[in-house]
Amino acid sequence: MDLKTETKLIIHLSKKFDEDAENRPKKKIFSRDMVLMLEAKTAEAEKILSRFYSEDSTGMSEFDYTTTEPAICKFDTEYLTWVLKFFDMQDSTSVKLSVKKEYPLTVEDENFKFVLAPKVTDG
User: Fold this and answer.
1) Partners of 107 in the beta sheet?
2) From CA 47, how far away is CA 95, in angstroms rounded?
3) How many helices (H) and strands (E) does the chain have?
4) Are the beta carbons of 108 and 77 closer than 8 angstroms?
5) CB 30 within 8 A of CB 97
6) Which of the pair, 9 or 71, is modelled with greater confidence?
7) Could you tell me the pTM of the whole model?
8) Domains of the chain, residue spans
9) Handedness of CA 17, 108, 105, 67 (dihedral sign)
10) Residue-wise pLDDT tens digits, 77-108
11) Strand pairing partners for 108?
């Protein structure tokens, strides 16, 4: 990844994620509103995310997405569009979308993995 692409990705990430956020585990960052989680899958991706987490942080490592009651889940198209733009900026040749029962939407390529928490309403 070239410097220009890295810079564009960092600027894009700063719109949803806090730089040098405390209480975040290495390789994963969470958006300010806790709707998105981004995980680095390669050393190159870790370098980009390093601006957004502390080396010695030991905070939350996953979203808590469990529910005890039937619910209807919806995903915010604003966030999904933002995530897809992120992958477009790095010229990803393919992106994998995964939706599973009892697990949030994931969008990933060879470098990064996003987890998008759903909006949950009573079923």
Assistant:
1) 97, 114
2) 20
3) 3, 7
4) no
5) no
6) 9
7) 0.75
8) 3-122
9) negative
10) 888 899 999 999 988 889 999 987 777 889 99
11) 96, 113
